[in-house]
Amino acid sequence: MIRIMPNPPTSRDVARLAGVSQATVSYALTGRGTISAATRARVLQVAESVGYRPNLAARSMRTRRTGRLAVVSGPTLDHQLRVLAGAGEVATAAGYAVETRTVDGDVEERTARVRELAAAGQHEGVLTLVPVLADVLTDLGAAVADRAGESVVVAEATFDEHMRSAGDLADAGPVAVFVETLLAAGHRRFLHVAGPDQYVSARARRDAYLAAIDRAAADPATADVVSLGVVGGTWSPEDARLAVQALPDDAPPLAVVAANDLLAAGVLRGAAERGWSAPGDVVVTGWDAAAMGAYLTPSLTTVDVDFTEAGRRAMRRLVAAVRGEPAPRQDAAVQRIVWRESTGPLTVA
Amino acid sequence: MIRIMPNPPTSRDVARLAGVSQATVSYALTGRGTISAATRARVLQVAESVGYRPNLAARSMRTRRTGRLAVVSGPTLDHQLRVLAGAGEVATAAGYAVETRTVDGDVEERTARVRELAAAGQHEGVLTLVPVLADVLTDLGAAVADRAGESVVVAEATFDEHMRSAGDLADAGPVAVFVETLLAAGHRRFLHVAGPDQYVSARARRDAYLAAIDRAAADPATADVVSLGVVGGTWSPEDARLAVQALPDDAPPLAVVAANDLLAAGVLRGAAERGWSAPGDVVVTGWDAAAMGAYLTPSLTTVDVDFTEAGRRAMRRLVAAVRGEPAPRQDAAVQRIVWRESTGPLTVA
DNA sequence: CTGAAAGCGCTTACAG
DNA sequence: CTGAAAGCGCTTACAG
């Protein structure tokens, strides 16, 4: 295949046209050297007029920086597209190209793939949206020298459970609100349908559920609370449905805290199959504000998560890490409870 | 920030270690020159042992090929993550790095973004998953010379409505099956809730609906068919709900073909709000096999789409176009109807 | 079958 | 404040 085309202009072409040296063009564009305002203006004007675009490969070779970041996502959780969008926005604004890799399989396989990616050295940093084993993650506290040749690897959800803040995607704060509000509405019988243990968010929601139940039991006003336990452990709504099928006949009235909307839909379906009304016999909460949830009957109470913003934040952390800067603090909540019909009539603070 | 680290090995290092020239290393790795099997084996062994990885920036500068492709997605349609996964798989296997860009806004803005991306020359090809104006798309029939400096741009859904085949994501064949099967079950009153006109798939489904109704009207056995029209025109379930709200009281019994599952959920919700039973008074079909659809009551009849495979195919087309090869034919269906409760009891062929 | 040499387009000390 | 020159790590005619 022969491509007959004028080669795109180089910095050398711009230099000749502007009557300066190639070095001056570089200084004008990068803003690095010392250069007079007049010269710079002229160079930029010429560059603009000929449609000059720096050859990134050449720049990369010279600077020994690839200017590329990778984001690793899974193929299964659809909302990751929005996280990706937010991450891409920040990366592009920071001057990086962002590449997406999809990984599949269990946590060992995913971790292996991320490790290869980091070792390949094609990327200055890697952001993983899927759970991986903690040892591939870069120890940001360690000296930069210790990271010889490897990409910086940052996870969207950090595994340090003590660092959880309200600005974090894995913040399970809404669980306590769900339980407390339902307690106040008179509910005493609870069940949690959990997500996969590998997911920080799923673990956090489960732990928050258990803690909320413990607190309720310790409170004289709600000491008669009873938890029918924690079931599930996947993101599959079928497991949620089956869990409801497996409940004793006298389970209702029951309040179910599901780890996401899909599981909550499985709960509603299971309840309907048993002839239990919702929100009469069973109330249920979800998570993620899936678009369809608002159109179920009953519509699903859920947690609206700003996935795009979460993606931006995760990417800001990665960019900071790659540049050796301290991690930005960002504590404004990305999550907001949306009360709908599936929790029945309530008095919400 | 000072990075104290041994530089990663270069082809020169490998050459020295293997006792050959740098050219020989290159020939061994790319398999391009004439080189003895013994020498090649030795070079590859040395390269492997020192963990040599070619510097892609250097290679790119020399070959004048970036080795990068871009995929443009929107932030709103979640299933695009699966298309992305399939596209990425094929691109990676073909030796390309694939970058994701998210674009927002109306069709003009999206088209402008794709145009910039193509003009920037950082990518050998661009695959767009979102609808754009046809004139940014590369005319693959035209001589390569006409594409001077620009990336090849290919759309996941082609705008040439005549080229639609069963292997295409926009193939609307299932619509005819829906209408015909419901006619056979005795339904005579139909409604279509359409998606946005910009989307090839939405247009194809609407056209297929109208054609199926026309065919039914022309058939003496079903000449009493009546279409209550085409409503909607967005992907928002709220519009579907409102469309049902706006229907006359005597609309049922009614068969609704919705352009996707979310719209179908809106229809179900609207029907429930009017006290219409489903699938008694209203039957409805969706599209996309959204996970939650199987857990609605009634569960949603839909079209299961292999988005990952659709992504693979679209990327194969792009890779072929970038390499100047003819487009691969791929006609095996990626879509399959899943009959569920929302269409009521049926005799399905 | 193998090597010496040029050059892809940048950036950056360094000299002036 | 500006320019001449080197060099990043590859690939590829070309010579042997």
UniProtKB/TrEMBL annotation, chains A, B:
Domain HTH lacI-type as annotated: residue spans: 9-63
Pfam families listed in its UniProt record: LacI (PF00356), Peripla_BP_3 (PF13377)
Keyword Kinase: no
InterPro entries xrefs: HTH_LacI (IPR000843), LacI/GalR-like_sensor (IPR046335), Lambda_DNA-bd_dom_sf (IPR010982), Peripla_BP_I (IPR028082)
SMART domains in alphabetical order: HTH_LACI (SM00354)
Lineage top rank: taxon: Bacteria
Name used for this protein in its record: Catabolite control protein A
The organism of origin for this protein: Isoptericola dokdonensis DS-3
Gene label: ccpA_1
